[in-house]
Amino acid sequence: MTMPVEIRQRAEALIAAESTRFDELHPRSRQMAVEASAHFPGGVPLHWMLDWETPFPIFVREAKGSTVTDVDGHAYSDFCLGDTGAMFGHSPAPVAKAISEQAARGLTAMLPSNLTAQVGALLAARFGLPFWQVTATASDANRAVVRWARALTNRPKVLVFDGCYHGQVEDAFVKLDGGGTIMKPSLLGQVTDISATSIAAPFNDLEAVEKILAAGDVALILTEPALTNTAMVLPEPGFVEGLVASARRHGTLLCLDETHTISAGPGGFTREHDLSPDFFVLGKPIAGGLPAAVFGFTHKVENDMRRVLGTKTPGYSGIGTTLSGNMLALAAMRACLEEVMTPKNYGHMTALASRLADGMRAAVTRHNLPWTVTQLGARAELVFSERPLRNGAEAAAAIDHAVERAIHLFLLNRNLLVTPFHNMTLVAPTTTEADVESLVIRFDEALSALSGEGE
Ligand code: PMP
Description:
single chain; about 450 residues; alpha/beta; Aspartate Aminotransferase, domain 1; Aspartate Aminotransferase, domain 2; 2 domains; seven-stranded mixed beta sheet; four-stranded mixed beta sheet; 14 helices; 16 strands; globular; pyridoxal phosphate binding; aminotransferase; pyridoxal phosphate; transaminase activity; PyrdxlP-dep_Trfase_small
């Protein structure tokens, strides 16, 4: 969908005005960006922190619950929540307590801790898969799954969906181009052509998947249950169930990466829809914001893993990092699973996210804009399309960076943080009705500015 010219023009003007205002409101952050630039390029510890749509980064003094306070003293209602890492609020009290207690009793030993059996049982009961492994990040978990799937099936290829993102997993950096798969041109330093072993398929298209799997050389389908790393695309009814069935038929393993779709409910989309994947991945918020991730798998997969390991010389498997599954991560995970990711908290998050989505929809309707608001449990996102998106190509066509940036900056200057790039909002257990009300009002004002109301 192309954005109406007048809206794009107003967005550009709004970006200019809001950038000036941002500059005036953040003298301490500006100063810190200069100071930090002496040794961190751009003043940030990792380059993509510069991808926020601000003239320079906001420097955080404190983040607690749903409030982020910056070094200039602005207190933001946080709907970005570290792009899901802090989805259960910043420093949830049970997790902070578990971390501080464990910190005095050892952080890492390259050995299992007294909590290991308990965490395994919690994961199995929660997500329904009997076996688990712990990694440091969701990227690592996905990488491990890709490697295991190839080792177990003796097949070379991985199927992902056009528009997907699964972290630093090289195998997923492909997209559709003119009906064929190409490597994403953004990927840095890649020497071999990933499209030789990774295939991109259109989301919500079981027929296309079936055709690809029929060749018998696909080890793994790696997918989110919904595409959340582009303008959000929900699965059509039966699509994910169809994937599970199709993969089984063709001897392909299926991994559901629930790192973002854990917004759907306490057991993720998998449990909400009673799905039975071979692998399940969850990173980001699983330890309340401390780096940790898990991947779960079936009895059959575990059995095959043992068989494959039996044929290899021990060590150098290419899976795992030294700090994976450390004692601190397990302590934080136990607290998060038991005391934070509770059905009660999810009830609050989903109800408030629905209020937020309804409020945003009402604003869109009031301004007569051809846009939708897509919701998946605690996650809601503004999408520049009149009807729900079907796949990555439609999502790419719906993205408008200028309008997104204008809304983002407008909200940020009014003490509201939403996720940059795609105006995604997340609701935490600590989000209040007042937070939501304030976002709905300010969002309506942003749309008034973009619609030229009062011009
Ligand atoms: N899977 C999905 C679905 C993600 O959205 C992301 C990050 N946005 C990752 C995996 C990777 O997570 P991390 O960067 O924490 O490794």
